[in-house]
Amino acid sequence: MIMIKNETLVTAVAVILFGLSLPVHAQSPCKKQTIEDLVKTVAESYQAKTLGSLDAQKPYVGKLRIVIENSLAEDNARDRFTIKWFTSLARAETWLKSREHEEMPGRNTKPFVQCAKGVCTYNFDGGIVHNTLYLKKITYGARGGCPYIKTIYLLDGD
Q1: Which of 23, 87, 94, 151 is least crowded, fewest Cβ atoms below 10 Å from its Cβ?
Q2: How many helices and strands (H and E) does the chain possess?
């Protein structure tokens, strides 16, 4: 009869359970869809101020970046861009709302143009309006057949 110490048995069971749980955690909860469908969903949630509702499908990997461009700033101005990193769209939404005063600036999207070479763009031919924060472009990637958002670029109409 082989005697195994309790500590050794507990350690062995813990290692086995940990090993069995890895494949479950490695699977992504992403939704398989086209990048165009994902960008459309992001744009609708952005305008409705409900970006946090997208966290369930986690359309990003790691941290998500938001870049706001000040439309009135000079090209080389230090305050031309505001850049923030977020661990969730809910946190990004909270930050965007914290920048509002009496629900301004409003949010808007221009007509969608295309997604190509990692960038989805919008048509700004019609100009922009004061007190509006526009969805300018979205950069993306794909992992395991699932598109994900890297950066959301916004244009502040000031």
Answers
A1: 23
A2: 3, 7
Chain segment 38-50, per-residue pLDDT in tens: 999 999 999 999 9
Q: What is the DSSP string of 63-128?
A: EEEEEEEETTS-TT-TTSEEEEEESSHHHHHHHHHHT-BTTBSEEEEPPEEEEETTEEEE--TT--
- Whether the bond between 23 and the residue before it is cis, its omega within 30 degrees of 0, is no
CA 97, CA 108: separation in Å to the nearest integer? 14
The long-range contacts involving 67-74, CB below 8 angstroms and separated by at least 24 positions, are 67/151, 67/152, 67/153, 67/154, 68/133, 68/154, 68/155, 68/156, 69/136, 69/153, 69/154, 69/155, 69/156, 70/156, 70/158, 71/128, 71/155, 71/156, 71/157, 71/158, 72/158
Is the pTM of the predicted complex or chain greater than 0.85? no
Q: Are 157 and 105 in contact (CB under 8 A)?
A: yes
